[in-house]
Amino acid sequence: MKLSAAALRRAHDRLLFACAYPMNRDEWEGANRELGELAVRAQALSRTSRGAALQNSGIAGTPIVASFSLALTRWLVDRFGENVSLDSSDADPEHLMATLTPLLDPIEREVLSEHPLRWTQWRRQFLGPQRAQHLRRLLTLLERLPGTSPERDAVFASLRVFVRWVVPIDAPVLSTGRFPAGAPRFHPRGLVKRALPARAWAEGKPARLRLDAAERRDLVDLARGTMTSLLSETDPFTCAHEGEVELHDMGHGVSVALFASIPEHKLALEAYVGYLLLKNHVPVGYGGGWVLGRQARFGLNVLTPFRGGESALFLCQLLRLYARRFGLKLFLVDPYQIGLGNPDGIRSGAFWFYWRLGFRPRQAELLALARAEALRIKPGGKRTPAATLRRLSHAVMAWETPLEAGWAPIDVEQVGAVVSRHILERFDVDRVKAGRSAKRRLGLRDSRLAVMLDALTPSGGWSAAELSRLNRLMPGKDRNEMDHARALQGCRQLMGRLADASGDTQ
């Protein structure tokens, strides 16, 4: 029976849910097999006039036309070759030529100064007559740009390049991308709908699975492919440092792969550790934690086909993993998760998802509002008005782990404001001068934290022991961000000054 594009999309999501939450092994194996067959049918349909509706569906075998970063575009070209091509650019042609012409040979530039070309002529002359080669050659040209990888990404973003990827049926995308880790979990008695972080904590330290280089590479491919099929990307996946990939078996059929970025894309202070969440070997969610000392700002994104499943269990197991791996005391929910600038978060009442799991606003007035609203809606199961949810979306939602150690929260935005004021008032916004002065004054070999440390200097100065410790630790951030994040907790004078700079966030 022939299925329409809409029917294929619905079947795709239904089979994905069955792969993650099967009743038994036969259902699990059958759903995975049917997804492979569906990809073949989608590929055939996408080649007909009726297949246009499958573009950007993310289903294996169908095309994706979207704009990605320079790094992810390079991965697509290297990994999938002729299946990836230049589709178009939304940038002004004059901007395109002004950006690319300085990257040509000096003689070519001289000729152009005398005889300017239109963009179609420029492209044909310098990228060649075969359009299929244009994307690869454009990337080669752009990689001659000076500066850091993030700076080249910014230039590429300004070109507004759209690529066309005809997704192979065996590509590591959501449809058919899998990573076999841990035993599958079947659900003859239904799904786990209720979970609490404290109960997950009691399960102890998760089992970290051993990975060889090929397996780490496969996980990076799966993370990138999954996000690309969602027309999205995130730094720890796109710029993943393969040597830092970890995989943890959480039980319940759940495993979590952790990712850190290559050195050029690491943050200066926090450790941005991304994750890919797998249920029965299927990618079901992604997100990250921004770890600093004993706290982490945290976010969870459950993929659309799996909503209505075990979201609470997933969050609790992620909190367990991050808390145990990094010795954390405090988790802070990214406000976007509860609706700040996120209409979906308001419509779904995401605030109450975190509330039921034990997260509470740190601001006293929003805590009082939430308690009153919880009492109002409880008797009849009433819905909270959108206006109230928008007020609550400004909450700093927090959950504390059972660890005994106390922790004073750090507000990185406030720390950043202190640094900016220091540079403005003492160096008249000359950041180069501020950096040189800080390194010289503090005797630091690594410049990433130098200006911040200068701005936060205690009245009695930094202790020699603390500066020596930082000099030893900072190079480790490039080698292994996850181990570095935990080691940084030992810099107690630094953590105290960061908390002081943050002020009272309650």
How would you describe this structure to a colleague?
With 506 residues, the protein is α+β, with helices and mostly antiparallel strands. It has helices at 5-20, 25-46, 70-80, 93-100, 106-114, 119-127, 134-142, 149-158, 197-201, 213-229, 235-238, 311-326, 343-347, 350-356, 364-377, 386-392, 412-427, 431-442, 450-455, 464-479, 481-487, 492-502, and strands at 63-66, 84-89, 161-166, 207-209, 246-251, 254-259, 271-279, 282-292, 295-302, 330-333, 360-361, 397-400. It has a nine-stranded mixed sheet, with helices on both faces. Strand 8 (282-292) and strand 9 form a beta hairpin. It is globular and about 65 Å long. The N and C termini lie far apart (60 Å). The mean pLDDT is 94.
Query: Major beta sheet, specifics?
Result: 9 strands, mixed
Count of runs of 4 or more consecutive helical residues? 22
In percent, how much strand structure appears in the residues?
5-15%
Distance between the termini: 60 Å
Gyration radius, in Å: 25 Å
Low-confidence stretches: none
Widest β-sheet, arrangement of strands: 4-5-6-7-8-9-10-12-11
The count of strands amounts to 12
* Average pLDDT metric: 94
The shape is: globular
Helix proportion: 40-55%
Structural class label: alpha+beta
